């Protein structure tokens, strides 16, 4: 039989298929996004209704486009309704399979096959609903082709629809699905062959005409359009909500980012590979870096090599396993090369379970605290060494007093044997060098006796310059820069000269290739924070030598540490200078870099206006004082029997009558009972009663009794009339001078350390 198709209705059927597919696929996306079962079911039903109804509408609009001359076509209501119901149920099942949150290829294929089979079933049930005076046969080839078109196009359409972007992918999916439905329908129609029949078209009452079918199609199409309008309204609503949510999220992220960056703590965030994603401003300030230098780089790139290896070997695996680590020590390298000691606390955070882990870490900078602790340990160590050194030097002074005194008496009695006198002279010189070494130890321990005087810095440096020049080779020049009008300082001039000489000699030894040594003074520099308030003068000695590395610089103050060869230094030069300066109330500062020379600064307090009167200083060297103490009864007191015997022998050689005792209590009784005692020579550090206490008690008995207190270091705060201090080890001349002066004066002259011509000091 000859048949034809109405082109307008065919085009309309295809458009209905595409529109229904787009609407249904768009609504189906809501199923996956729904948070409740009720909303999920509602969206699934709406999608099934739109897709199933659209397929059904497209089919019967296309059937209306099919005409045969002289043939009246009607439709079975039950089969027609069944075709609509099957289309809705089967497409709903397909959507239910593919819209689950756990997307998989198997579910996608099953959903596509299920939906394609439903399209085929709907088509052929709809074909069987046709009632006309003809019977229909099918070509198996075209039937099979129509089934393949339905199945393949359904799978492809669902795959496109659920890939992501609604506008692009759903549009393509709708076109594919629409043409698939249309293609399947017209392939199925091609498979059908109509043959005229003699039988009349019965059962007209149970069928409805093409007009009734058109009404049904219009209703279903209106339903689909209504669903499309509702879906579009929801789309606009969801788009507005999504835009608002995105804006709120961006604002929240920006607020969080500002809060995170502005926190006063050094924080950073890492991805699961340990790469830096975000840091706080305090973190950047700590490491002296900018954000462009750190984003995307591994955090270990800013660690020392050892610290980075330990983190990857121990800390990172432990963090991933435990989820949190606290106070793990590490070391970072700042942009300026500083090594930072830090504690790192770490925690793994996930916004959602499916997200990759994000590591949040905070730093605690321990650099300054460790430096302070190290400085405290160093100070405690130096204090302990100083206490030990001071005690040893004090005892050694007692021994040297005996040795020097005994050698001097032996030399006086050996007047004819020149060889023996030479040996005694060598022994005496060695003992005097030992006394010089003891003075250095006492200077380091800050327990030497000082004789502070107000001096002009410029005059002292100028008077010392010839001696300094004589100690330098021809390839080293000395430059002095002491401005006129530099304020005076109150210091022991002899010890300051020795300190400057030590520093210049050290600078000389650091410049084997020659250069310039500069001795300068300044009052404009800011004093170190370690100094107490007040005004200071900075004396500096600068060389152009090799300089010191960090390790050597940290040990330079340690006693007996030296970089010179064996026999070329004692390692007491800088410790002696530091001890003397600190005992004076100042500070020594070392500045050096390898290859850039060394600067040694001596900060000394300026003389305050209205300061106290200076104590007169009496040297005990080679003087032409009379050595005859005949008619003098002198009480000698010392708890050390050897020292007491030596002092007694010295006094007897000077002509005095000596009463000797090792007990200060017995000495006190003798002072009370012996009115002929003209002077007391007493040690200071004695058990049960010190020399100072003996002096105080004796003044109640004899207020005018002269006292000479012999001491190894400045442990004797004595300031009483007719009293003087005598520094050990001392010579016959110094002892005689002290006794004669204290017997003739009412004030307290001080017998200080012997000058260099009596006890020469070895430099280091």
**Largest beta sheet: what is the strand line-up?**
9-8-12-11-10
User: What class, by secondary structure content?
Assistant: alpha/beta
Q: Approximately how much beta-strand content do the residues carry?
A: 15-25%
Largest sheet: 5 strands, antiparallel
The figure for the number of domains is 5
Shape: rod-shaped
Q: What is the helix fraction of residues, given as a range?
A: 40-55%
Question: Oligomerization state of this entry?
Answer: single chain
Which value, in Å, is the CA radius of gyration?
55 Å
Written overview of the protein:
- The chain crosses the membrane at residues 6-25, 46-66, 78-98, 105-126, 138-160, 212-234.
- GO terms for molecular function: phosphorelay sensor kinase activity.
- It catalyses: ATP + protein L-histidine = ADP + protein N-phospho-L-histidine.
- This is histidine kinase.
- By secondary structure, the protein is an alpha/beta fold.
- It has 19 helices and 26 strands.
- Helix 18 (691-701) links the parallel strand 23 (679-683) and strand 24.
- A five-stranded antiparallel sheet has the order 9-8-12-11-10, sandwiched between helices.
- The longest helix is centred in the N-terminal third of the chain and has 53 residues, at 210-262.
- Helix content is 52%, strand content 17%.
- The chain folds into five domains: 4-196 and 207-235, no CATH class; 262-370, PAS domain (Beta-Lactamase), CATH 3.30.450.20; 373-441; 447-605, 2-Layer Sandwich (Heat Shock Protein 90), CATH 3.30.565; 633-746, Response regulator (Rossmann fold), CATH 3.40.50.
- The model is unreliable at 200-205, 610-627 and 746-764 (pLDDT under 50).
- The N and C termini lie far apart (130 Å).
């Amino acid at each position: 039989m000859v048949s034809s198709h109405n082109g307008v209705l065919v085009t309309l059927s295809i458009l209905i298929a595409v529109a229904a597919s787009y609407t249904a696929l768009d609504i189906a996306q809501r199923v996956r996004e729904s948070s409740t079962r009720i909303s999920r079911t509602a969206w699934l039903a709406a999608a099934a209704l739109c897709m199933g109804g659209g397929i059904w509408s497209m089919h019967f609009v296309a059937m209306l486009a099919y005409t045969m001359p002289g043939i009246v076509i009607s439709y079975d209501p039950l089969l027609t309704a069944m075709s609509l119901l099957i289309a809705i149920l089967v497409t709903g099942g397909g959507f239910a399979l593919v819209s689950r949150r756990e997307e998989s290829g198997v579910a996608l294929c099953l959903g596509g096959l299920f939906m394609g089979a439903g399209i085929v079933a709907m088509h052929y049930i709809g074909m069987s609903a046709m009632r006309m005076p003809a019977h229909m046969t099918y070509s198996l080839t075209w039937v099979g082709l129509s089934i393949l078109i339905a199945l393949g196009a359904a799978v492809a359409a669902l795959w496109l629809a659920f890939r992501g972007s609604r506008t692009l992918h759903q549009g393509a999916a709708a076109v594919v699905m629409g043409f698939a439905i249309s293609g399947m329908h017209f392939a199925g129609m091609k498979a059908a062959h109509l043959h005229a029949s003699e039988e009349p078209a019965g059962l007209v009452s149970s069928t409805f005409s093409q007009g009734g079918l058109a009404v049904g199609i219009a209703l279903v199409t209106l339903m689909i359009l209504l669903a499309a309008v509702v879906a579009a309204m929801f789309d606009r609503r969801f788009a507005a909500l999504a835009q608002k949510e995105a804006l709120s999220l961006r604002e929240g992220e920006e607020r969080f980012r500002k809060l995170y960056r502005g926190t006063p703590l050094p924080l950073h965030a890492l991805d699961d590979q340990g790469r830096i994603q975000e840091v706080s401003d305090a973190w950047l300030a700590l490491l002296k870096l900018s954000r462009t230098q750190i984003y995307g780089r591994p955090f270990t790139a800013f660690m020392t090599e050892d610290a980075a290896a330990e983190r990857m070997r121990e800390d990172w695996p432990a963090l991933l396993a435990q989820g949190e680590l606290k106070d793990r020590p590490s070391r970072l390298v700042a942009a300026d090369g500083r090594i930072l000691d830090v504690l790192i606390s770490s925690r793994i955070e996930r916004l959602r379970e499916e997200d990759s882990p994000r590591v949040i870490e905070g730093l605690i900078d321990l650099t300054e605290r460790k430096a302070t602790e190290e400085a405290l340990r160093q100070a405690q160590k130096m204090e302990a060494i100083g206490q030990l050194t001071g005690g040893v030097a004090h005892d050694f002074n007692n021994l040297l007093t005996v040795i020097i005194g005994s050698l001097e008496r032996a030399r006086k009695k050996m007047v004819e044997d020149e060889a023996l006198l030479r040996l005694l002279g060598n022994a005496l010189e060695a003992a005097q060098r030992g006394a010089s070494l003891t003075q250095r130890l006492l200077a380091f321990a800050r327990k030497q006796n000082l004789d502070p005087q107000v001096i002009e810095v410029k005059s002292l440096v100028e008077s010392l310059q010839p001696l300094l020049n004589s100690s330098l080779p021809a390839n080293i020049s000395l430059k002095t820069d002491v401005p006129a009008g530099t304020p005076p300082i109150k210091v022991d001039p002899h010890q300051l000269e020795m300190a400057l000489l030590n520093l210049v000699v050290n600078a000389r030894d650091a410049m084997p290739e020659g250069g310039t040594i500069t001795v300068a003074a300044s009052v404009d520099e800011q004093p170190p924070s370690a100094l107490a308030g007040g005004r200071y003068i900075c004396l500096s000695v600068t060389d152009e030598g090799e300089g010191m590395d960090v390790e050597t610089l940290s040990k330079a103050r340690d006693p007996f540490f030296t970089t010179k060869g064996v026999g070329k230094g004692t390692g007491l030069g800088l410790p002696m200078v530091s001890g003397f300066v600190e005992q004076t109330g100042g500070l020594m500062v070392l500045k050096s870099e390898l290859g850039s020379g060394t600067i040694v600064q001596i900060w000394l307090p300026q003389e305050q206006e209205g300061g106290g009167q200076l104590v007169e200083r009496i040297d005990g060297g080679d003087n032409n004082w009379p050595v005859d103490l005949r008619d003098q009864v002198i009480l000698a007191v010392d708890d050390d029997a050897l020292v007491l015997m030596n002092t007694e022998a010295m006094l007897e050689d000077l002509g005095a009558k000596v009463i000797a005792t090792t007990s200060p209590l017995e000495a006190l009784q003798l002072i009370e009972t012996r009115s002929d005692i003209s002077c007391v020579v007493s040690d200071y550090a004695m058990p049960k009663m010190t020399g100072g206490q003996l002096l105080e008690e004796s003044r109640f008995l004899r207020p005018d009794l002269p006292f000479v207190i012999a001491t190894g270091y400045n442990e004797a705060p004595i300031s009483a009339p007719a009293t003087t201090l005598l520094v050990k080890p001392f010579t016959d001349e110094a002892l005689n001078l002290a006794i004669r002066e204290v017997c003739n004066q009412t004030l307290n002259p001080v017998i200080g350390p012997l000058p260099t011509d009596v006890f020469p000091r070895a430099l280091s």
